[in-house]
Amino acid sequence: MHYCYFDGPRVMPKKMRHHWLLIGACGWVLLILMFASKLINFNSRATDDYGEKAEMQSWTQTEVKTVKSLPAQTSDRRTPKSSDLPSAGPSAASNPTDWQSLETRRLDLLSSVCQKESLRNLTHTSVNTFVLDRIFVCDKHKILFCQTPKVGNTQWKKVLIVLNGVFSTVEEIPENLVHDHEKNGLPRLSSLTYPEIKERLDTYFKFFIVRDPFERLISAFKDKFVKNPRFEPWYKHDIAPAIIRKYRKSHRDNDNKATAGLRFEDFIRYLGDESGRRHMDRQFGEHVIHWVTYSELCAPCDIKYSVIGHHETLELDAPYILKAAGIERLVSYPTIPPGITRYNQTKVEQYFSGISKRDVRRLYARYQGDFSLFGYHRPDFLLD
Ligand SMILES: *[C@@H]1O[C@H](CO)[C@@H](O)[C@H](O)[C@H]1NC(C)=O
Ligand SMILES: *[C@@H]1O[C@H](CO)[C@@H](O)[C@H](O)[C@H]1NC(C)=O
Fold first, then answer.
1. Among 41, 211, 288, 348, which has the highest number of CB atoms less than 10 A from its own CB?
2. Best substitution site from 117, 120, 121 to test ligand 1's pocket, by max atoms within 8 Å of Cβ?
């Protein structure tokens, strides 16, 4: 089985004609490396990932190659000073001396929370077809990536698509193909046989990215029920009405067009209703991936992941993940727009204002596993 046919030079084939362009680009790349000591640039349409279009606008105007081969420059990269380093999340306690120890602490926390009997229902998931559908395979570089929507995954998928060789640069990947897994050359683990799956789970580099669970839900709500930029009408036309019918408290003002759409409070009540939701979720099918827990998506207690990245520290996590996966010479993660990854408590407070404590507590009860596994603080400001 061989999915990846990446070779460096193919990224820039018309060497002669683009001689000067290439020199210019390399000089530019070096400059960025010197000043930012981070991996480079790529343009990206991350609005899908974040659902925060306004904040992205300045970023999306830059025109830079998304993935390029980095022959010599990688030697310039050094371990950042400890002062540059992130905490394990917005909630981390101590300062790690380097990224490796930070990652070790994340994995240690994960395994200790996985062993807590009281959280067992919220942390353990059998490695079923739903989970195998979430995991993408790059055989050439022996990488498995579990998709956690609303956490910047489109960028990682593009990186892996390029590594898999069907496209040679990220720009060549048509936007609608990124999520078309019949055609994008990024197979899912579920498409393989059991022995093939087992071998890969046992030996490959495995990773996924998380962010604050409630911020992720806000992002999912905005992206699917408010903006819906990818034109996925079923969210507004099928899923929203079903949730409203079951979870809207007062139907009095339904005639008013301005309030006809799904409200955040309806969504929260639906999400917090563990048992009542099950039947609906079966009807919603795969679309629930935008809001079900990380545990349900990636089975982090049942699959031994190599690395867990945090959205809040993605600026540092992304290059290290590439390095840990052994692909830092081949690809880079896009430059991340300033401030976009930062946890924003004001935003969370705004969205949750007016939602009853009872509903927030039920929501937390359902997402508590995700908070605990990945070191995110209980949002006391919403619950007490
Ligand atoms: C786990 O869930 C099952 C049914 O879904 C329930 O019977 C059991 O009490 C739960 N266990 C814990 C520890 O919550
Ligand atoms: C946080 O969110 C609020 C409300 O959405 C917004 O006004 C503010 O600019 C955000 N802060 C940052 C630092 O992004």
1. 211
2. 121
* Distance of alpha carbon 149 from alpha carbon 154, whole angstroms: 8
CA distances from 323 to 96, 139, 195, 333, 341 (A): 18, 17, 28, 11, 21
Q: Which ligand is nearest to the CA of 345?
A: 2
Sheet order of strands, 143-146 included: 135-138, 143-146, 205-210, 307-310
**Nearest alpha-carbon partner for 367 in 217, 204, 147:** 217
CB atoms under 10 Å from CB of 177, counted, come to: 18
For residue 304, give the 3-state DSSP assignment. Answer: coil
Q: Does the beta carbon of 121 lie inside 6 Å of ligand 1?
A: yes
Tokens matching residue 200: 């890969």
Q: Which atom of ligand 1 is nearest to the CA of 119?
A: 13
Q: At what angle do helices 264-272 and 345-352 cross, to 10 degrees?
A: 90
* Ligand 1 pocket, residue 365 CB under 6 Å: no
pTM of the model: 0.75
pLDDT tens-place string over residues 160-217: 988 988 787 777 888 888 878 777 888 999 999 999 999 999 999 999 999 999 999 9
Residue from 148, 290, 120 nearest 219 by CA: 290
Instruction: Kindly report the protein residue whose alpha carbon is nearest to atom 4 of ligand 2.
Output: 347
Q: Can you read off the two tokens belonging to residue 115?
A: 């062993």
Question: How many angstroms does the Cα of residue 121 sit away from the middle of ligand 1?
Answer: 6
* Contact predicate 312/48, CB 8 Å: no
- Read off the pLDDT of residues 56-81 as tens digits, 9 standing for 90 and up: 333 333 333 334 333 333 333 333 33
Contact 145, 160 (CB under 8 A): yes
Query: 116 C-alpha to center of ligand 1: Å?
Result: 13
Nearest to 343 by CA among 165, 148, 151: 151
Would you list the domain boundaries of the chain?
A: 95-372
Q: For residue 210, count CB atoms less than 10 angstroms from its CB and return exposed for 0-12, middle for 13-18, buried for 19 or more.
A: buried
User: Which residue CA neighbors atom 8 of ligand 1 most closely?
Assistant: 121
